[in-house]
Design goal:
The chain is mostly helical. It is built from 22 helices and 8 strands. It has one domain (about 1-95, about 125-420, about 440-545): Orthogonal Bundle (Hydantoin permease). A hairpin with a 6-residue loop joins strand 7 and strand 8. Keywords: Cell membrane, Membrane, Signal, Symport, Transmembrane, Transmembrane helix, Transport.
Length: about 550
């Protein structure tokens, strides 16, 4: 391992010098200016709108919402009815059905079968995996829980008012069904190498699943397209953007400026990320299963402190959320406008339909694909229904002046992301608004929030490194050389993101995350009947152990 890490460090050191020179000479700004038209076109293409009444709605949002609604109805509201099953599965209650003992009897078993398998050829399929249900969930959650929960919610409320929160919750609940479908398929169609390494995700269920349905050519095209987009997303939205935001927060907190500061922070982040990703999914899972509960715990605990400190306003806050969802305040664009804002921010936050989480869930140790599908149900619930809602409540409480019973700011964004504080005229948006809201009750929490942001960014980077690597291997082979090249490039982008202000590149790459929706959702619409079959198998197995 030490040799591999030194090789990585030696390979990307020259690129660190380039990153520093770019930051000092303003090369990043020139690249940004040149690339911005391309990035703007790409973002506009991915977010192509269609008219819906008086509004222009991004088609990708319509695809996500309609798909999630369909899956929710088809699978009989799994977000509610399968929730207890998901909890029991992730805590290991049904682990025994994932194991069966090898046949060691010397008796003649020719022709005898167990569950359709010929005795003597049975293998323990639960060993075809690398991580536990909880580790897979933690890895996937770490890839989605992040700045979208801190900054994205603030943007949604600034633009759509408290009512946007209601539609975020609704989108999170129906998105649970989409996660169930894509993660079940991820396990069903995964590949397992001779050494036990698992290769899975949408690129595999698109190519293998559609081939089963007689659409081999379409499956290959969609699988390759998804892999290309996922690699791009891993370098940008899943990496450079994360390291950039972590650096901005740290630099602001410490009062540091200059390109050299970004390079130093970037190198430190790259070394830490490199140590983790060299170990593969097992190392990533072992780290995320510790970081995710810790960072989520800090954030949720602080939110709960504020909620209890404003307990008398809880009913007022939920009243604003519910009333604002159906009777929006003047100037917020009406019901459909608030609904769109809420759905869009939730979809961007939990990535249900993008298929990225299926890559992490594919590595689970199980012989029942649907077992991991139900575990994946919990991901949008944790991300959107719990953490995003808590963030929203903190901001709503901040806007209630307890002494004068007046608002601190007026809902309805001026520039698309910020609100203006009454009296001072100060503009707050994104993470700044969330930070100020927490600080209003817990003085100095901005320091803790900075730590949370850095941890969110770090866990997101290591999760996306795995997503990108799996896609890279799908495109370029599963050899050690391809593995090393990708990891080197990924670490370089950690430093570039921290040192430079390549807004256009990050904008371009971030849009790739949303672009994943198109090939992935096409596959889900073809393959969802397979999920029903797998769910029936899993439920039958559970009934079997209950009947003992």
């Amino acid at each position: 391992m030490r040799k591999a890490f030194l090789s990585l460090l030696t390979l990307f050191l020259p690129f660190l010098t380039i990153a520093q020179e770019a930051a000092e000479k303003g090369l990043d700004e020139r690249i940004n200016d040149w690339f911005m038209p391309i990035a703007t076109w790409w973002e506009g293409f991915v977010l192509t709108t269609v008219p819906l009444g008086e509004y222009d709605v991004p088609f990708v949002v319509i695809l996500l919402v309609t798909g999630a609604t369909f899956f929710t109805i088809y699978f009989k509201f799994p977000s509610i009815l399968k929730f207890p099953l998901a909890i029991n599965t992730v805590r290991g209650k049904y682990d025994e059905i994932d194991h069966h003992e090898a046949v060691t009897s010397s008796a003649d078993t020719t022709g005898l079968t167990v569950d359709g398998d010929v005795i003597g050829t049975i293998r323990d399929e639960s060993q075809e995996g690398e991580v536990s249900h909880f580790q897979a969930l933690a890895t996937a959650v770490s890839g989605t829980v992040g700045l979208g929960n801190i900054a994205g919610v603030a943007v949604a409320i600034a633009l759509g008012g408290p009512g946007a929160t209601f539609w975020m919750i609704v989108c999170g609940l129906i998105g649970m069904a989409t996660k169930f479908v894509e993660c079940t398929l991820g396990v069903k169609y995964r590949d397992v190498g001779a050494d036990g390494t698992v290769y899975g995700g949408p690129m595999y269920y698109l190519s293998k699943g559609l081939k089963e349905r007689g659409f081999s050519g379409l499956g290959k095209i969609l699988g390759a397209l998804f892999a290309i987009l996922c690699v791009g997303a891993s370098f940008g939205g899943g990496n450079a953007f994360q390291s950039n935001q972590a650096t901005v927060q740290l630099s602001s907190l410490m009062g540091l400026e200059g390109g050299a500061t970004g390079v130093i922070i970037g190198i430190i982040l790259a070394v830490l990320v490199g140590i983790v990703i060299i170990g593969g999914i097992k190392r990533i899972a072992s780290i995320t299963e510790k970081i995710v509960p810790f960072m989520a715990g800090i954030y949720v605990l602080a939110a709960l402190v504020i909620i209890f400190a404003n307990f008398s306003y809880v009913d007022d806050a939920f009243g604003l959320i519910f009333n604002g969802a159906f009777t929006p305040m003047a100037g917020l664009g009406g019901l459909v406008g608030v609904l769109i804002v809420g759905f869009q921010r939730a979809a961007f936050s939990n990535e249900a339909g993008a298929g990225s989480a299926a890559i992490a869930h594919s590595a689970v140790k199980t012989k029942y694909p649907a077992s991991e599908g139900v575990v994946a149900l919990l991901e949008p619930f944790i991300d959107t229904v719990v953490i995003c809602t808590m963030t929203a409540l903190v901001i709503i409480f901040f806007n209630i002046d307890a002494d004068n019973l007046q608002s601190v700011f007026t809902y309805g964004s001026v520039d698309g992301s910020s609100v203006i504080l009454n009296g001072s005229g100060e503009a707050l948006g994104g993470v700044d608004l969330t930070s100020r809201a927490f600080d209003s009750v817990i003085p100095g929490f901005s320091y803790v929030l900075t730590i949370a942001i850095v941890l969110f960014a770090f866990s997101t980077m290591i999760s996306w490194s795995y997503y990108g690597l799996q896609s890279w291997k799908y495109l370029f082979g599963k050899g050690k050389r391809a593995d090393l090249i990708y990891k080197c490039l990924f670490l370089v982008f950690v430093v570039i993101g921290a040192a430079a202000t390549l807004d256009a590149v990050i904008k371009f790459s971030d849009a790739m995350i949303l672009a994943l929706v198109f090939p992935n959702m096409i596959g889900l619409f073809f393959l969802f009947p397979k999920v029903r079959e797998e769910m029936a198998k899993y439920l039958d197995a559970i009934k079997g152990i209950k009947g003992k």
